[in-house]
Design goal:
Length: about 375
């Protein structure tokens, strides 16, 4: 495990360390200059989309990229880009003193660790499940060493369905708090029935599934416009994955399945009315261009029902009060969960802005702490 020391043995605070090579790619966005973080807040701040990785996975991703085996998978290009950012890699790979010192500076009480994109599904076929098991052992060890600071979601390689089912069962036994999938793998998604044993295993083991974005498959049209990641490719990919699960009938088949998506629901809460209208008026024979040639199936409920029953969203990267309050109103305050998106997008000011947010004390405690505990079964 990477230590909290820099190569020269010195210690650095978050602001100084983060500016070495990676902070130039980030900005505080819409969060105002908000002052000091409350150190005696009446809630714990549980941040629920906090990234990490480990050296063997980075090496395997780079080797697969350099092999040329998947030339159209832009998520591999993203892996290569991240691998060449040493300051970022140090922050991602540390599950000890360095990370905890940053959490303390930011006022974060606990992180829910998610293996960062593009995950274990972009390595040589056959190697992903072993790397997932290695990741889960590392994450479980970090949680044991720091039981009040870390919880974690389990990795799995969806290309290996049988291996994923076994690994998810093992991860539940390790005490991990959910599972994470960095969205597609070579353009495949969990709405395809051949992968439904994975959904069955998630439901059976009471593991919430966090679908995190990755770069879109064959996304040259995104890349050339600079929309490779958060500005386009990421939200569109998770939108496709989530709506595919809804419209495939997956939640009718697995009604206790819990799904979590980040970045304020990747804009989907804004479209619930339109989802329901399109679903209710779908007629693939009469208007195939508008309604997807029969792609909308006969579900038990409107699409919005599943957002309010099976799906939760986190605020990762969107520390913006109007959006948070809108989603709390539309989905219910129990469906919106705090996240920071460390280390990609983190800000002292954003944490203080949450503290000042004009919502009830009860709703704020749900946002910052209680919802995370309920969905991810976090104790302590």
């Amino acid at each position: 495990m990477v230590s909290g020391k820099l190569d020269d043995g010195s210690e650095k605070g978050l602001k100084g360390h983060f500016r070495e090579d990676f902070s130039q790619r980030t900005r505080t966005g819409l969060a105002p200059r908000a002052g000091h973080v409350l150190r005696d807040a009446p809630y714990k701040r549980i941040a629920c989309e906090e990234a990490w990785t480990f050296p063997d996975l980075v090496k395997a991703q780079v080797a697969y990229l350099e092999s040329g085996a998947a030339p159209n998978d832009d998520s591999l290009k993203m892996a290569g880009m991240f691998a060449n950012m040493p300051s970022l890699q140090e922050m991602l790979q540390d599950l000890g003193d360095l990370r905890i010192s940053h959490m303390d500076e930011l006022g974060i009480d606990r992180q829910l660790l998610l293996l960062t994109a593009p995950g274990v599904q972009v390595v040589k076929p056959g190697d992903g499940t072993a790397l997932a098991a290695q990741a889960n052992d590392i994450a479980a060890e970090a949680c044991r060493h720091h039981p009040t600071r870390f919880s974690a979601c389990a990795a799995f390689d969806p290309r290996d369905v049988a291996g994923s089912v076994k690994e998810l069962e093992r991860a539940a036994g390790l005490g991990l708090n959910g599972a994470v999938l960095n969205s597609h793998w070579q353009g495949h998604y969990l709405d395809e029935p051949e992968f439904w044993p994975i959904l069955e295993a998630l439901e059976a083991n009471d593991l919430a599934l966090y679908i995190h974005p990755t770069a879109p498959f064959n996304g040259a049209h995104y890349e050339k416009r600079g929309f490779f990641g958060a500005l386009g490719g990421f939200p569109h990919d998770v939108w496709l994955h989530t709506m595919g699960l809804i419209m495939s009938g997956a939640f009718d088949r697995f009604p206790k399945l819990r799904l979590v998506i980040g970045h304020m629901g990747e804009c989907m809460p804004l479209h619930l009315y339109r989802f329901d209208w399109m679903q209710g008026n779908a007629d693939g024979r009469a208007r195939p261009g508008l309604f997807g040639d029969g792609a909308i199936r006969n579900l038990k409920h409107p699409a919005s029902y599943y957002f309010k029953t099976n799906i939760w969203i986190t605020t990762s990267g969107v520390g913006w009060e109007p959006a948070i309050k809108f989603c709390q109103e539309v989905l219910g305050p129990e469906r919106v969960i705090y996240a920071m998106d460390y280390p990609y997008q983190q800000s002292y000011d954003e944490v203080a802005a949450y503290d000042r947010m004009a919502i009830s004390d009860e709703d704020k405690k749900m946002l910052m702490e209680d919802n995370a505990r309920a969905v991810f079964r976090i104790k302590g």
